[in-house]
Amino acid sequence: MAKSLLCSSTLNPFFSSTLSSSTSSKKKNQIAYSGNNKNQTSSLLWKRRDLSLGFMSSFLAVGLVGNDIRRRDANAAILEADDDEELLEKVKQDRKKRIERQAVINSAVKEKGYLQELVYKLSKVGQAIENNDLPAAGLVLGKGTDTEWVKTVNSAFTKLSSSPEENTEVETFNSSLASLITSVNKNDIESSKLAFVSSASAFEKWTTLTGLLEQLKGI
């Protein structure tokens, strides 16, 4: 009996201590678990919030980019329309100028006759220079640039020239013609050849620019 009581009295504190320790440990574990659970829940909430904010930011960014692209496309379309209108207007103006130019050319019968005379003279001078016959070339050209045929040719140039490029070729022609007449009268065959080529080339360029080349061939 005493032995039984001894065992009971000896074991009870041990069990009490053990139970107390176990209970305390469980409570600590519960508290720790509860704390961890709260932390995990809070972490998940923040992650969901971050994802939501990230999604909204991406959505807004995409929307802003899309709006910007649409605005740029709209502006580009407006500019393209303006360019088309400007191009159309330019085409109309060019067509109007061509019609006006053609009307002037068609009405310039006398001036085209002067230019045809120039073509004839240049042909004769070219043949004479090719044959080294500068006296014959001199008879066609005359003694200077103040002759009547040179004046009438320049009156045709003045009426039918309408651009800076055409006027430049006229100046080149007159300068080369003056050199040609001087070289022929000096009996300088080499300088005559160079001056003839320069004057004939300038005249051909002028007729091409003015659109008279084919018409002069047909006269």
From TrEMBL:
Q: Where is the Maintenance of Photosystem II under High light 2 C-terminal domain?
A: 114-219
What's the protein here called? Maintenance of Photosystem II under High light 2 C-terminal domain-containing protein
Record-linked Pfam families: MPH2 (PF20675)
| GO BP of this protein | photosystem II repair
